[in-house]
Structures are given as C-alpha cells and as structure tokens.
Amino acid sequence: MGIDTNASSGPGNRTRSVIVVGGGIGGLAAALALTRQGIAVQLLEQAAHIGEIGAGIQLGPNAFAALDALGVGQTARARAVFTDHIIMMDAVDAQEVVRIDTGEAFRARFGGPYAVIHRADIHLSILEAVQKNPLIRFRTSTQIASMSQDAQGVEVVDTNGNRYRADALVGADGVKSVIRAQTVGDPVRVTGHVVYRAVVERENMPDELRINAPVLWAGPHCHLVHYPLRGGQQYNLVVTFHSREAEEWGVREGSKDEVLSYFEGIHPRPHQMLDRPTSWKRWATADREPVDHWGQGRVTLLGDAAHPMTQYMAQGACMALEDAVTLGMAVSQCGDDLDAAFRLYESVRIPRSARVVWSTREMGRLYHARGVERTVRNMLWTGRSQSQFYDALQWLYGWKVEHCLAPT
C-alpha cells in the first residue's frame, strides 16, 4: 500500500511535505514549526496512542522562548509550576551548596521563567495545537523499518510494508532512532547510570521538603532530585546512581530494595524520600558522542535522535524544542531548498547541542563527587553573586528565536 503525503493546491503550486517520525515532544514541536512555513506534515508514531511516559521535567527560559515561538507558550505556562529557586544540597551533610534565584531578576535577565511540569502536561500542550492544525496528519501504530531518498523526495517503509513519500524527512524517533541508524549508524553510549522516577502525592511528601524549587541532593555516586508538579498537588522524585550491573539502555519496573542499597550513606533528611513512592520506573540511561552530521540530502534528525543526553542539566526536552524552532527558521530562510535548510539547521544545532551533551556529562561527575573532589565541588560557588550565576548561564538560558540561526 502506498501513502503519498504530498498535497497539491494546483499545477505549479504544490504544497511541500515532510514526514516526521516520532510523536514525542520534539516530533510534535517539529510538526508545528514546519506547518508555520506552509509545509504539510505526516506524523508517524510507533505507539498505539500518542502520549508520554515518565514524570516531571524542568523548563528553562530557552524552552519557553521556543514554546512561545510555536504558539503554545501560554498553554504550557497554565500547566506549569514556576519555581522560586534552583537549589543544590550536599546529600551527605545536608548543607546548601548552591541557590540560584529564579524570580523577577532571573526572568528579567533571560526573558522567561524557570518552571517544572509533568511530562504529560507539556506534551499535551503541544499536542492540542497539533490536533487543531489542518496541515498535520497522524498515523499511530506505525514502526519504521527503513528509509531511502531519490531526486524526487524521501520514502519510508513501515514494518507492515506501507510506504510513505514526502519531500523530506525528520527523524525524531528517540535514542533508539531507526532513522539515525541509517544516516549515522553509530552506537549508543550506555552510561552505567540508572535513573528511578516516581510521583509522590502532596500528603505523602515530608513537610520540610515541600519546596517550590527543583532541589538536587548530591551524593557520592548518586543523587536525588525533587520538585512540585500540578500546582503542588504532586512531587516529582528522581534518584540516580552508578549501577553495579552491566546495563543495557531501557525502561522497566523498579525495585525499592535496589534504590535503598545505593543510598545507605546519605543524610536522613533526603533519605526519607526513598520510602515515599508506591511504584518506581527504572531507566538505564544512554547518550551518544556528538557527530558532525545528522543527515544528508533532505533527511535530518531532531531531539533525542540527534543528541541524546543524560538528565543532569535538565535540557533534553528544552533542546528538542529549540531544534524544532530552529528547523522552522532555517526552512523560512532557505525557501524551497529543503536540503540547504537542513544543512543550515545542522550547522547551528550540532555545536550547541554538543556543548550541552558534554556539559551535562561534567555536571553528572560533579554531582556524584566523593572525597576531596566533593570538598572542592562544595567550594566552587562560594561567594558567587546571583548576577554571576546568571552570567554563567547566559549561553544556555539566553537562547532567543531571533538569533537561533547565528553561529554559536
């Protein structure tokens, strides 16, 4: 069966078309960004229903700049919790290491807030706009097996033998991207770090830890993070540790006993959170080494398919949103030349996302410091003013749509 995504509005006036593989945050955002350039989008998602698993995520001002550019910023804000601070604590002695204010001065500096939100809520905020868009068509339960391109465009084939054609293709199909396997062909880098995620109801959260901020408790080879969700009615809890096992990337049900075995040496204040969840999801994490190209011709990648990263800087979804907006702006600048647009997009997104990948790895090392390295880490930010913190974060949170195509 052939399925042609090309739409025509008359001879010589054919609507350009793009296939987007993947219906996560990045894929939906890419679809919205492309339709703003008059492009028809066929969205292909392997799951039976478009949705998100997981718990909370953090959104910096750069994410809100992208959401605003996509026309969904206010919808996302209505579902988010705006934080007062970003806090880092030492999980061994419960001493404060870093506190960054994210109130009025922060918003004035970066042009947007810092917020936390349930992953399903940010996904829904974009999905609602996608569902109303007449240029976007969905197809779920569609797993891509292969892709190819020729002078006329790009074709993908799903595991049922269905074929889909369009002018171009964006692979937004996650860490295990089928599209990346064909465009780059590199292996994932399994980190050996395991992440457990859970949501705790407000009444089950210790009073002293009901803090309107993402709070990170940094311990030896482990850390915990908690922050409010959904108006403070729930709290997101994330714990991370260096696994004793040989890990393979994937998600499965977690074990409370396993979590407790990695957090024996931490202070009672953060430790009490480990008893609160009634169920856990366990992620063995992976990223990839940055590369100098994501695609060729009229094929490119976006989000985790392009630059999977660990969670230590809370930038995975933020980078995918930046990608989507930048892709749309590149198409706008290059007109009908989608090949040129994709290469322009890659030329600015590859170095920026690589910096985030490498910075994220370094932050993970600092969070999990032990011995003398822990002592040095706790001294790094002593005496730093809020404006100095903001200066250090300018490269990340200062991203703006109007400058997104400028070399970084």
UniProtKB/TrEMBL annotation:
SUPFAM superfamilies: FAD-linked reductases, C-terminal domain (SSF54373), FAD/NAD(P)-binding domain (SSF51905). Its cofactor is FAD. One of its GO terms (molecular function) is 3-hydroxybenzoate 6-monooxygenase activity. Keywords: FAD, Flavoprotein, Monooxygenase, Oxidoreductase. Residues 17-356 form the FAD-binding domain. It is an enzyme of class 1 (oxidoreductase). Pfam families: FAD_binding_3. Coiled coil: none annotated. Its EC number is 1.14.13.24. NCBIfam families: PRK08163.1 (NF006021). This is 3-hydroxybenzoate 6-hydroxylase.
